[in-house]
Each structure stands twice: as C-alpha cells, then as structure tokens.
Structure prediction request, 72 residues.
Amino acid sequence: MWCRMKTKWVVIYIVHGEAGAEAARALMDREGFLCRIEPIAKGASGGEACYEVLALPTEAQEARDTLQENGF
Prediction:
C-alpha cells in the first residue's frame, strides 16, 4: 500500500524582497539544506513583499545557524 506523508516545514527566517529570499535559498542549496520560500505579505504602496524561508524540522536549527553565519 502506498502512503504519502505530509511534510511540515519550519520558518527559519523572514526577509523583505524576493532577491533576499532567493539569496537565502541559494545559500541553503549550496550548503545542502532542503528549503523553500513562501510570500507572506505584499509590500505597502507597491513596496517589496515579505517572504518566509522554511526548512525541514530536522534541519531547522542548523539551517538557521548557517544563515546567521553568512550574514542573514
């Protein structure tokens, strides 16, 4: 029998702007972490949106540390 597990994600960082979110995702990819980004709020008056950077619960702390060590 085939069973699909639902994966839960943990927010490890919130950033303004798509460029910052993509930079965080690129770092996570280089470091071998599975992550994704999700828009959470549109910017006021046409400003940049906010994004969540999400990681798997088993990697969240290490991924968060990696972001901090790299200036995020």
User: Anything to note?
Assistant: The first helix runs from residue 18 to 31. The helical segments are 18-31, 60-69. The chain has a mean pLDDT of 88. The first strand starts at residue 10 and ends at 16.
